[in-house]
Amino acid sequence: MLHVRSIWNGAISFGLVSIPIKLVNATESHSISFRQIHTEDGGRIRYRKVCELDDREVSQAEIGKGYEDADGTIIPITDEDLAHLPLPTAKTIEIVAFVPADRIDPLQMDAAYYLAAGGAPAAKPYTLLREALKRSQKVAIAKFALRGKERLGMLRVVGDAIAMHGLLWPDEVREPEGVAPDTRVTVNDKELDLADALMDTLGEIDLEELHDEYREALEEVVAAKAAGEAPPEAPEPARAGKVLDLMAALEKSVRAAKESRGEQPEEAADVRRLPQRKTARAAPKQTAGKKSTATTKKTAAKKTAASAKKSTSKTAQGAKKTTAKSTAKNAAKSTEKKTPEKKTTSRKRTA
Protein backbone atom coordinates (compact mmCIF):
# COMPACT_ATOMS: atom_id res chain seq x y z
CA MET A 1 0.00 0.00 0.00
CA LEU A 2 2.93 2.37 0.64
CA HIS A 3 4.02 2.20 -3.01
CA VAL A 4 0.54 2.92 -4.43
CA ARG A 5 0.40 6.35 -6.02
CA SER A 6 -2.20 8.74 -4.64
CA ILE A 7 -4.74 10.00 -7.14
CA TRP A 8 -5.89 13.06 -5.20
CA ASN A 9 -4.51 15.22 -2.40
CA GLY A 10 -6.64 17.35 -0.16
CA ALA A 11 -8.16 17.41 3.31
CA ILE A 12 -11.14 16.12 5.25
CA SER A 13 -13.26 18.92 6.67
CA PHE A 14 -14.68 17.70 9.99
CA GLY A 15 -16.36 20.78 11.43
CA LEU A 16 -13.51 23.16 12.17
CA VAL A 17 -11.03 20.29 12.11
CA SER A 18 -9.00 19.84 8.92
CA ILE A 19 -7.28 16.50 8.25
CA PRO A 20 -4.74 16.41 5.40
CA ILE A 21 -5.20 13.18 3.42
CA LYS A 22 -4.19 11.39 0.24
CA LEU A 23 -6.72 9.49 -1.82
CA VAL A 24 -5.59 5.99 -2.84
CA ASN A 25 -7.47 3.41 -4.90
CA ALA A 26 -8.74 0.62 -2.60
CA THR A 27 -9.39 -1.88 -5.39
CA GLU A 28 -7.50 -3.24 -8.36
CA SER A 29 -8.48 -5.20 -11.42
CA HIS A 30 -6.95 -8.61 -12.16
CA SER A 31 -8.86 -9.17 -15.40
CA ILE A 32 -6.92 -10.12 -18.53
CA SER A 33 -7.03 -7.50 -21.24
CA PHE A 34 -6.63 -8.09 -24.97
CA ARG A 35 -5.17 -6.01 -27.79
CA GLN A 36 -6.84 -5.57 -31.09
CA ILE A 37 -4.82 -7.11 -33.91
CA HIS A 38 -5.01 -7.52 -37.65
CA THR A 39 -6.12 -11.15 -38.12
CA GLU A 40 -4.17 -11.56 -41.37
CA ASP A 41 -0.71 -10.69 -40.10
CA GLY A 42 -1.13 -10.15 -36.33
CA GLY A 43 -0.27 -6.46 -36.48
CA ARG A 44 -1.47 -4.22 -33.67
CA ILE A 45 -4.46 -2.00 -34.33
CA ARG A 46 -3.81 1.41 -32.79
CA TYR A 47 -5.95 4.48 -32.36
CA ARG A 48 -4.33 7.72 -33.35
CA LYS A 49 -5.50 11.13 -32.15
CA VAL A 50 -5.97 13.19 -35.27
CA CYS A 51 -7.23 16.77 -35.52
CA GLU A 52 -10.13 16.82 -37.95
CA LEU A 53 -9.34 20.38 -39.11
CA ASP A 54 -5.74 19.97 -40.22
CA ASP A 55 -5.87 16.14 -40.57
CA ARG A 56 -2.73 15.47 -38.60
CA GLU A 57 -1.89 13.44 -35.47
CA VAL A 58 -1.45 15.51 -32.33
CA SER A 59 0.44 14.77 -29.09
CA GLN A 60 -1.08 14.59 -25.61
CA ALA A 61 0.37 17.99 -24.70
CA GLU A 62 -1.68 19.60 -27.50
CA ILE A 63 -4.98 18.14 -26.26
CA GLY A 64 -7.27 20.15 -24.01
CA LYS A 65 -10.95 20.13 -22.88
CA GLY A 66 -13.94 21.67 -24.57
CA TYR A 67 -17.71 21.73 -24.03
CA GLU A 68 -19.93 21.19 -27.05
CA ASP A 69 -22.90 23.49 -27.04
CA ALA A 70 -26.32 22.60 -28.39
CA ASP A 71 -25.56 24.20 -31.76
CA GLY A 72 -22.30 22.26 -32.07
CA THR A 73 -20.05 25.13 -30.99
CA ILE A 74 -17.02 24.01 -28.94
CA ILE A 75 -16.33 26.13 -25.85
CA PRO A 76 -12.73 25.61 -24.59
CA ILE A 77 -12.38 24.93 -20.84
CA THR A 78 -8.93 25.15 -19.32
CA ASP A 79 -7.54 23.62 -16.14
CA GLU A 80 -7.34 27.15 -14.72
CA ASP A 81 -11.06 27.61 -15.29
CA LEU A 82 -11.76 24.38 -13.37
CA ALA A 83 -9.38 25.36 -10.57
CA HIS A 84 -11.38 28.53 -9.90
CA LEU A 85 -14.74 26.79 -9.63
CA PRO A 86 -16.77 28.23 -6.71
CA LEU A 87 -16.85 24.87 -4.92
CA PRO A 88 -15.73 24.34 -1.32
CA THR A 89 -15.13 20.68 -2.22
CA ALA A 90 -12.54 21.36 -4.93
CA LYS A 91 -9.75 20.20 -2.63
CA THR A 92 -11.75 19.17 0.42
CA ILE A 93 -13.80 16.15 1.44
CA GLU A 94 -16.53 17.99 3.32
CA ILE A 95 -18.43 15.87 5.83
CA VAL A 96 -22.06 16.97 5.87
CA ALA A 97 -23.74 14.33 8.07
CA PHE A 98 -23.37 11.11 10.06
CA VAL A 99 -26.00 8.40 9.46
CA PRO A 100 -26.46 4.67 10.20
CA ALA A 101 -24.85 2.45 7.58
CA ASP A 102 -28.16 0.76 6.68
CA ARG A 103 -29.46 4.11 5.44
CA ILE A 104 -27.19 3.80 2.40
CA ASP A 105 -28.70 1.95 -0.55
CA PRO A 106 -26.09 -0.49 -1.99
CA LEU A 107 -27.25 0.57 -5.46
CA GLN A 108 -25.54 3.91 -4.80
CA MET A 109 -22.15 2.29 -4.14
CA ASP A 110 -19.42 3.25 -6.59
CA ALA A 111 -15.62 3.07 -6.53
CA ALA A 112 -13.80 2.60 -3.20
CA TYR A 113 -10.79 4.53 -1.93
CA TYR A 114 -8.53 4.57 1.12
CA LEU A 115 -7.89 7.87 2.85
CA ALA A 116 -4.26 7.99 3.97
CA ALA A 117 -3.14 10.51 6.58
CA GLY A 118 -1.05 13.24 4.98
CA GLY A 119 1.97 13.36 7.27
CA ALA A 120 2.55 13.35 11.01
CA PRO A 121 0.35 16.42 11.79
CA ALA A 122 -2.66 14.54 10.39
CA ALA A 123 -2.22 11.49 12.68
CA LYS A 124 -4.10 12.93 15.68
CA PRO A 125 -7.22 14.27 13.92
CA TYR A 126 -7.27 11.23 11.60
CA THR A 127 -7.32 8.88 14.61
CA LEU A 128 -9.96 11.03 16.31
CA LEU A 129 -12.31 10.77 13.32
CA ARG A 130 -11.70 7.01 12.99
CA GLU A 131 -12.45 6.31 16.65
CA ALA A 132 -15.52 8.59 16.58
CA LEU A 133 -16.90 6.61 13.63
CA LYS A 134 -16.21 3.34 15.45
CA ARG A 135 -17.93 4.38 18.65
CA SER A 136 -20.96 5.90 16.96
CA GLN A 137 -21.34 2.88 14.63
CA LYS A 138 -22.25 5.35 11.89
CA VAL A 139 -20.83 6.38 8.54
CA ALA A 140 -20.00 9.88 7.39
CA ILE A 141 -21.63 11.37 4.31
CA ALA A 142 -19.33 13.75 2.46
CA LYS A 143 -19.09 15.77 -0.74
CA PHE A 144 -15.89 16.01 -2.77
CA ALA A 145 -14.73 16.95 -6.26
CA LEU A 146 -12.80 14.46 -8.38
CA ARG A 147 -11.99 14.37 -12.11
CA GLY A 148 -13.90 17.49 -12.94
CA LYS A 149 -17.15 16.92 -11.07
CA GLU A 150 -18.55 17.00 -7.56
CA ARG A 151 -19.33 13.63 -6.06
CA LEU A 152 -20.97 12.11 -3.02
CA GLY A 153 -19.03 9.83 -0.69
CA MET A 154 -19.43 7.62 2.37
CA LEU A 155 -16.63 7.33 4.92
CA ARG A 156 -16.35 4.22 7.09
CA VAL A 157 -13.72 2.42 9.13
CA VAL A 158 -11.88 -0.55 7.60
CA GLY A 159 -9.38 -2.04 10.04
CA ASP A 160 -7.25 0.88 11.24
CA ALA A 161 -7.92 2.99 8.16
CA ILE A 162 -10.71 5.19 6.88
CA ALA A 163 -12.20 4.16 3.56
CA MET A 164 -14.39 6.22 1.30
CA HIS A 165 -16.97 4.79 -1.10
CA GLY A 166 -18.03 6.99 -3.94
CA LEU A 167 -21.82 7.23 -4.06
CA LEU A 168 -24.09 7.95 -6.97
CA TRP A 169 -26.41 10.86 -6.50
CA PRO A 170 -29.95 9.71 -5.63
CA ASP A 171 -31.30 10.89 -8.98
CA GLU A 172 -28.72 8.70 -10.76
CA VAL A 173 -30.30 5.49 -9.44
CA ARG A 174 -33.15 4.24 -11.58
CA GLU A 175 -36.41 3.02 -10.09
CA PRO A 176 -37.07 -0.72 -10.62
CA GLU A 177 -40.23 -0.10 -12.63
CA GLY A 178 -41.16 -2.86 -15.05
CA VAL A 179 -38.47 -5.21 -13.70
CA ALA A 180 -40.59 -7.50 -11.51
CA PRO A 181 -42.75 -10.18 -13.23
CA ASP A 182 -46.14 -8.98 -14.40
CA THR A 183 -47.75 -12.40 -13.90
CA ARG A 184 -49.39 -12.89 -10.51
CA VAL A 185 -48.11 -15.98 -8.77
CA THR A 186 -48.53 -17.42 -5.27
CA VAL A 187 -45.86 -19.19 -3.29
CA ASN A 188 -47.07 -21.70 -0.70
CA ASP A 189 -45.46 -22.58 2.63
CA LYS A 190 -44.09 -25.92 1.41
CA GLU A 191 -42.18 -24.21 -1.39
CA LEU A 192 -40.83 -21.64 1.05
CA ASP A 193 -39.79 -24.44 3.45
CA LEU A 194 -37.86 -26.19 0.67
CA ALA A 195 -36.25 -22.91 -0.35
CA ASP A 196 -35.21 -22.37 3.28
CA ALA A 197 -33.83 -25.92 3.40
CA LEU A 198 -31.80 -25.25 0.25
CA MET A 199 -30.45 -22.03 1.74
CA ASP A 200 -29.51 -23.83 4.97
CA THR A 201 -27.84 -26.64 3.02
CA LEU A 202 -25.75 -24.24 0.96
CA GLY A 203 -24.95 -22.43 4.20
CA GLU A 204 -22.31 -19.74 4.52
CA ILE A 205 -18.91 -19.45 2.90
CA ASP A 206 -15.66 -17.66 3.56
CA LEU A 207 -15.41 -15.03 0.83
CA GLU A 208 -11.64 -15.47 0.86
CA GLU A 209 -12.18 -18.92 -0.70
CA LEU A 210 -13.85 -17.50 -3.79
CA HIS A 211 -11.71 -16.81 -6.87
CA ASP A 212 -12.09 -15.93 -10.53
CA GLU A 213 -12.31 -19.29 -12.29
CA TYR A 214 -12.85 -17.65 -15.66
CA ARG A 215 -9.55 -15.76 -15.40
CA GLU A 216 -7.71 -18.94 -14.37
CA ALA A 217 -9.14 -20.85 -17.32
CA LEU A 218 -8.20 -18.00 -19.63
CA GLU A 219 -4.62 -18.04 -18.31
CA GLU A 220 -4.43 -21.77 -19.08
CA VAL A 221 -5.56 -21.13 -22.64
CA VAL A 222 -2.96 -18.37 -23.09
CA ALA A 223 -0.20 -20.56 -21.63
CA ALA A 224 -1.13 -23.49 -23.87
CA LYS A 225 -1.21 -21.31 -26.97
CA ALA A 226 2.15 -19.76 -26.06
CA ALA A 227 3.67 -23.25 -25.71
CA GLY A 228 2.22 -24.34 -29.05
CA GLU A 229 -0.16 -26.80 -27.42
CA ALA A 230 -3.86 -27.30 -27.92
CA PRO A 231 -5.93 -25.37 -25.41
CA PRO A 232 -7.80 -27.45 -22.83
CA GLU A 233 -11.34 -28.34 -23.75
CA ALA A 234 -14.11 -27.28 -21.45
CA PRO A 235 -16.54 -29.95 -20.23
CA GLU A 236 -19.99 -29.84 -21.74
CA PRO A 237 -22.38 -28.02 -19.44
CA ALA A 238 -25.32 -29.97 -18.11
CA ARG A 239 -28.46 -29.36 -20.09
CA ALA A 240 -31.06 -27.63 -18.01
CA GLY A 241 -34.55 -28.94 -18.69
CA LYS A 242 -37.74 -27.03 -18.32
CA VAL A 243 -38.85 -26.59 -14.73
CA LEU A 244 -42.31 -28.12 -14.75
CA ASP A 245 -42.56 -28.86 -11.04
CA LEU A 246 -41.05 -26.27 -8.73
CA MET A 247 -41.30 -28.54 -5.69
CA ALA A 248 -39.45 -31.35 -7.47
CA ALA A 249 -36.78 -28.92 -8.65
CA LEU A 250 -36.28 -27.62 -5.10
CA GLU A 251 -36.07 -31.13 -3.65
CA LYS A 252 -33.54 -32.12 -6.31
CA SER A 253 -31.52 -28.99 -5.58
CA VAL A 254 -31.41 -29.78 -1.86
CA ARG A 255 -30.22 -33.35 -2.56
CA ALA A 256 -27.59 -32.10 -5.02
CA ALA A 257 -26.33 -29.50 -2.54
CA LYS A 258 -26.00 -32.15 0.19
CA GLU A 259 -24.17 -34.52 -2.14
CA SER A 260 -21.76 -31.75 -3.15
CA ARG A 261 -20.93 -31.24 0.53
CA GLY A 262 -20.41 -34.95 1.09
CA GLU A 263 -23.60 -35.40 3.08
CA GLN A 264 -25.80 -38.45 2.69
CA PRO A 265 -29.24 -37.48 1.39
CA GLU A 266 -31.32 -39.42 3.90
CA GLU A 267 -34.66 -37.85 3.10
CA ALA A 268 -35.43 -39.99 0.06
CA ALA A 269 -34.45 -43.23 1.85
CA ASP A 270 -36.63 -42.39 4.82
CA VAL A 271 -39.61 -41.70 2.63
CA ARG A 272 -39.27 -45.10 0.95
CA ARG A 273 -38.88 -47.04 4.17
CA LEU A 274 -41.64 -45.39 6.14
CA PRO A 275 -44.55 -47.47 4.68
CA GLN A 276 -42.67 -50.74 5.39
CA ARG A 277 -42.00 -49.72 8.97
CA LYS A 278 -45.65 -48.84 9.51
CA THR A 279 -46.84 -52.19 8.08
CA ALA A 280 -44.32 -54.19 10.11
CA ARG A 281 -45.29 -52.44 13.30
CA ALA A 282 -49.04 -52.68 12.68
CA ALA A 283 -49.30 -56.48 13.04
CA PRO A 284 -47.58 -56.78 16.43
CA LYS A 285 -49.68 -53.93 17.75
CA GLN A 286 -52.93 -55.68 16.75
CA THR A 287 -51.77 -59.08 18.18
CA ALA A 288 -50.65 -57.46 21.37
CA GLY A 289 -53.99 -55.70 21.60
CA LYS A 290 -55.94 -58.95 21.20
CA LYS A 291 -53.82 -60.72 23.78
CA SER A 292 -54.12 -57.91 26.23
CA THR A 293 -57.91 -57.82 25.69
CA ALA A 294 -58.26 -61.59 26.28
CA THR A 295 -56.04 -61.42 29.31
CA THR A 296 -58.06 -58.54 30.66
CA LYS A 297 -61.29 -60.44 30.14
CA LYS A 298 -59.91 -63.56 31.87
CA THR A 299 -58.61 -61.51 34.77
CA ALA A 300 -61.95 -59.75 35.11
CA ALA A 301 -63.79 -63.10 35.05
CA LYS A 302 -61.50 -64.50 37.72
CA LYS A 303 -61.99 -61.43 39.87
CA THR A 304 -65.76 -61.64 39.43
CA ALA A 305 -65.82 -65.35 40.38
CA ALA A 306 -63.62 -64.69 43.36
CA SER A 307 -65.83 -61.83 44.45
CA ALA A 308 -68.92 -64.02 44.02
CA LYS A 309 -67.36 -66.79 46.10
CA LYS A 310 -66.42 -64.34 48.82
CA SER A 311 -69.87 -62.81 48.87
CA THR A 312 -71.46 -66.32 48.92
CA SER A 313 -69.26 -67.44 51.77
CA LYS A 314 -69.97 -64.24 53.65
CA THR A 315 -73.68 -64.73 53.08
CA ALA A 316 -73.49 -68.32 54.24
CA GLN A 317 -71.52 -67.34 57.30
CA GLY A 318 -74.00 -64.57 58.02
CA ALA A 319 -76.87 -67.02 57.62
CA LYS A 320 -75.21 -69.53 59.94
CA LYS A 321 -74.59 -66.83 62.49
CA THR A 322 -78.17 -65.66 62.25
CA THR A 323 -79.51 -69.22 62.60
CA ALA A 324 -77.26 -69.86 65.57
CA LYS A 325 -78.34 -66.65 67.22
CA SER A 326 -82.02 -67.37 66.68
CA THR A 327 -81.60 -70.93 67.93
CA ALA A 328 -79.86 -69.72 71.05
CA LYS A 329 -82.54 -67.16 71.69
CA ASN A 330 -85.32 -69.69 71.25
CA ALA A 331 -83.55 -72.10 73.57
CA ALA A 332 -83.14 -69.39 76.17
CA LYS A 333 -86.76 -68.47 75.94
CA SER A 334 -87.91 -72.04 76.31
CA THR A 335 -85.59 -72.52 79.28
CA GLU A 336 -86.90 -69.40 80.96
CA LYS A 337 -90.45 -70.65 80.54
CA LYS A 338 -89.66 -74.08 81.91
CA THR A 339 -87.68 -72.94 84.93
CA PRO A 340 -90.50 -71.07 86.81
CA GLU A 341 -92.78 -74.05 86.49
CA LYS A 342 -90.18 -76.28 88.14
CA LYS A 343 -89.64 -73.73 90.94
CA THR A 344 -93.36 -73.40 91.56
CA THR A 345 -93.76 -77.11 91.66
CA SER A 346 -90.96 -77.54 94.08
CA ARG A 347 -92.32 -74.83 96.33
CA LYS A 348 -95.72 -76.50 96.38
CA ARG A 349 -94.18 -79.81 97.32
CA THR A 350 -92.37 -78.25 100.26
CA ALA A 351 -95.48 -76.80 101.71
UniProtKB/TrEMBL annotation:
Residues 55-184 form the Ku domain. The lineage of its organism: Bacteria, Bacillati, Actinomycetota, Actinomycetes, Kitasatosporales. Pfam families: Ku (PF02735). Residues 254-273, 334-344 have a biased composition (Basic and acidic residues). It comes from the Bacteria. Belongs to the prokaryotic Ku family. One of its GO terms (molecular function) is double-stranded DNA binding. SMART domains: Ku78 (SM00559). The keyword ATP-binding does not apply. This is Non-homologous end joining protein Ku. With LigD forms a non-homologous end joining (NHEJ) DNA repair enzyme, which repairs dsDNA breaks with reduced fidelity. Binds linear dsDNA with 5'- and 3'- overhangs but not closed circular dsDNA nor ssDNA. Recruits and stimulates the ligase activity of LigD. NCBIfam families: Ku_bact (TIGR02772). Residues 254-351 are annotated as: Disordered. Homodimer. Interacts with LigD. One of its GO terms (biological process) is double-strand break repair via nonhomologous end joining. Keywords: DNA damage, DNA recombination, DNA repair, DNA-binding. InterPro entries: DNA_bd_Ku70/Ku80, Prok_Ku, SPOC-like_C_dom_sf. Gene3D superfamilies: 2.40.290.10. Residues 285-333 have a biased composition (Low complexity).
